[in-house]
């Protein structure tokens, strides 16, 4: 395009005017030549800047897709972990109900209760969530995400929703060492039923079931664990719902970036 304008400019300058106006037009031609050179330089700079901006925009959008893909991977992992944790939590609550009912009604002991004694003591505070994708976003810079709405939702999910859940779990976990020490006094592990594929679910049986029914600490402790587990369940439900929503937002944004 610049070559085309230059050819037009040179043709205008090289045209031979009438003899009477040759001197008068000479200065005008030189001025026109100089202005044409300046105009060509400006046009060239503008085109170069436009190409550079386009290339930078293309690079940023490619990096944005990479960051969003990594975030999507982390969130899908978290979603699956939370769903699995929610299912286990429901089973632990069922075991707690069985143990509480048996002790409150003085029901006869059965070794089928041993698995429930094990599950009833679990506070459900060992959930691990992936922040890898979010750390990648922080390292690159939040503004790499072009959508303000998506950016704000991602930050709120990781900085508020996820952290509130994990902090509550950490708080409840602080009670666990004392509880476990007390349970170890009342129960023994059924080592014959140890499963290497599931090493943390060895059934436990009471050393003295009649004394356990009369124990003034164990039953309230199991009720307390159940309440704490239910508090976490409420927060877990909010996390699952918000994670699913943000996953949908990221998928939509990735589809837009492909266009």
Structure explained in plain terms:
The chain is 76% helix and 2% strand. It is mainly alpha-helical and 259 residues long. The chain has a two-stranded antiparallel sheet with strand order 1-2. The longest helix is centred in the N-terminal third of the chain and has 83 residues, at 22-104.
Defining traits:
about 260 residues; single chain; mainly alpha; two-stranded antiparallel ribbon
The total count of strands amounts to 2
Give the class from helix and strand content and strand pairing: mainly alpha
Our measurement of the CA-to-CA distance between the termini, rounded to an integer number of angstroms, reads 29 Å
Q: Strands across the major sheet, in which order?
A: 1-2
Determine the mean pLDDT: 87
Order of helices and strands: HHHHHHEEHH
Net shape:
rod-shaped
| Amount of beta strand | under 5%
Give helix % range. over 70%
Number of helices: 8
- Sheet with the most strands? 2 strands, antiparallel
Low-confidence stretches: none
